Amino acid sequence: MPRTVYAFPTVNDVSASLRDFVLRAQDEALAKHDRFTIALSGGSLPATLARGLLEHQTAFQWSKWHVFYADERCVPLNDAESNHRLAHEAFLAHVPIPAEQVYTINPDLVGQPEAAAEDYQHQLMQAFAPTGDDVRFPVFDLILLGMGPDGHTCSLFPGHPLVNERTLWVSSLTDSPKPPPSRITLTFPVLNHAHAVAFVTTGANKQDMLVRVLDQTEEGLPAGMVNPTAGHVYWFLDEPAAAKLQDSLIDRPAAL
């Protein structure tokens, strides 16, 4: 599996290096086609991302960004649990990405998770196959993910039936072990068709789970199941998170 694990001294260093990484991903995408497609998770990721992006806004071609969510809670967009609200408050409200290029859960369907997932899959189809082309799965330029304390990523939880979904682009669940229970999520086939996937994981409380995900891959935890078939997976860690990993797994660049 093409995988690179970076460790940086502090969260601020993670943010700065992630900014440079995203800028390169944008530029590589725009050299191939006229847009940059990126999917985001929630949790602490939007704030970590924003800390770097907002310091160097002028380096980015915001008008070419198309922003999706790797998963979303079935709540109103202004709810405290909404991933979109987290991303909007952290940085989307502060950069000139056209509103129609930020793809959110349909607020009229938050009480109907299955319909919300179908609608979001339709949004992806309109974005990635607008002329009805036969596209098996979308290919994102970049997907940014976090890792939960149980090794979940997106809303793909250990032992949940959704980890075995191989057909749908977007699926729903109403029994999330972490509240709120109703969510929609990208599935593994979509994650694993991306050009690049980057995990952003910080804090000493992630040490033991990172060992299980990165050193003990045979355990099959969801975060360890992200293996792009024609792309690359990156991990951005701070030193407290990386403390228990084997040194041979880790790259500690001065800068990216």
CATH architecture: 3-Layer(aba) Sandwich
Q: Got a strand count?
A: 10
Strand order of the largest sheet: 3-2-5-8-9-1-10
SSE string, helices as H and strands as E: EHEHEEHHEEEHEHEHE
Strand content: 15-25%
Largest sheet: 7 strands, parallel
* CATH class call: Alpha Beta
Write down the overall mean pLDDT: 94
Total number of helices: 7
Unreliable stretches covering 5 or more consecutive residues: none
Q: Can you give the helix content as a percent range?
A: 25-40%
Q: Which geometry do the CA atoms define?
A: globular
For the record, give the distance between the C-alpha atoms at the N and C termini, rounded to a whole number: 21 Å
Supply the helix-strand structural class: alpha/beta
Please name the CATH topology. Rossmann fold
Overall tally of structural domains = 1
The value of Rg in angstroms is 17 Å
Outline of this structure?
Helix content is 28%, strand content 18%.
Task: Describe, in plain words, how this protein is organized in 3D.
The protein is of the alpha/beta class. The protein has one domain (7-251): Rossmann fold (3-Layer(aba) Sandwich). The protein contains seven helices and ten strands. It has helices at 11-32, 45-53, 83-90, 113-128, 188-191, 207-215, 239-242; strands spanning 3-8, 36-40, 65-69, 71-73, 142-145, 170-173, 183-186, 196-201, 232-238, 250-251. The strands form two sheets. It has a seven-stranded parallel sheet. Strands 4-7-6 form a three-stranded antiparallel sheet. Strand 8 (196-201), helix 6 and strand 9 form a beta-alpha-beta unit. Helix 1 crosses helix 2. The protein is globular, with a radius of gyration of 17 Å. The two termini are 21 Å apart. The mean pLDDT is 94.
